[in-house]
Structures are given as C-alpha cells and as structure tokens.
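Below is a filled-in request sheet from our internal design queue. Each sheet records the structural input a requester submitted and the sequence that came back. We keep these sheets so that new team members can see what a complete request looks like end to end.

REQUESTER: design group, bay 2
PRIORITY: normal
MODE: inverse folding
CHAIN LENGTH: 154
BACKBONE (tokenized):
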C-alpha cells in the first residue's frame, strides 16, 4: 500500500480531519541536470497556528529524505546523506515553502510527499509529482534521447 493511502487510512481511523487540498497532487517539471522546485503548503487548517516540523519523503519509501525542525529557537535543517548536497528547503513566506532538488537526474522522477506538523492544527500533506525530462536532439529523421551518458536513437 502506498504511503499516501497509509496516511489516509490512519487519519480516517483516528477521526482526524483530512483537508481535500491534501489529496490533490501538485506538479513540477525539470530538465535533467537543472533544478526542480517542489512546493509545500504550510497553511494551517485552524489559523493562527505555528509550523513545528516539515518532512519530505519520495514515492512509497518511508525514509525521510529531508526535514526542517522549527521547534527550537532557530530552524534546523537535516538531509539524508544520499541527498544532502542536492536537496535544500526554504521558506517563501508563512504559507509556502519549496524543496529544491539540484542537478536533477531521471532517477529523481517520483511523487514526493511533504508532511507539515503544527502546534494545534492537523498534519497537512502536499504531494508533488516530479517529472524529469531528458535531453533530446534531432539528427535528420532521427530523434536522439540522451540520458546518463547513453544515447538512444528513435
């Protein structure tokens, strides 16, 4: 069962209110080798409220790739060692944030999940479908697709 459905079932059983906006995915696209920006909704269901913690994971994997903890005096960033130099989280304002994935690879393509925990409001989720587009070249009647130092001819 996917992580999304696990959360849905858990919150349904616990009686927590799931915001309909949390079920609709966002979409992001990047060319291979460029930066991708994945949005995260920080709006509490019951304002005014404060964000405590933001965590990102990829696909059906429960492994947290990146987290931002705001419970202390200053926000603390943490990234899994496998992505630490390519992922960075930044707050745009009190309601929006972005996870930037630098130097995207085709293997980065997936659905990412942003989990936001608040002081009082229910947890909020943003699901982002990232599409990574490889390099295309045309040569006469052929289309060349270049990925990870391999060339495919169509």
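RETURNED SEQUENCE:
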């Amino acid at each position: 069962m996917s992580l999304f459905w696990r959360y849905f079932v858990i919150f349904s059983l616990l009686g927590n209110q799931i915001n309909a906006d949390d079920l609709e995915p966002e979409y992001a696209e990047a060319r291979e080798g460029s930066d991708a920006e994945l949005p995260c909704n920080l709006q509490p269901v019951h304002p005014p409220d404060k964000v405590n913690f933001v965590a990102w994971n990829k696909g059906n994997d429960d492994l947290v790739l990146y987290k931002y903890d705001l419970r202390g005096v200053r926000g603390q960033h943490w990234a899994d060692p496998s992505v630490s130099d390519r992922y960075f989280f930044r707050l745009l304002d009190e309601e929006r944030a972005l996870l930037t994935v630098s130097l995207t690879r085709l293997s980065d393509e997936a659905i990412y999940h942003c989990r936001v925990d608040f002081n009082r409001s229910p947890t909020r989720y943003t699901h982002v479908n990232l599409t990574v587009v490889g390099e295309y070249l045309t040569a006469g009647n052929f289309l060349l697709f270049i990925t990870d130092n391999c060339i495919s001819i169509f």
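SHEET NOTES:
- Residues 7 and 125 are 9 Å apart (CA to CA).
- Residues 9-17 have pLDDT under 50 and may be disordered.
FILED BY: M.R.
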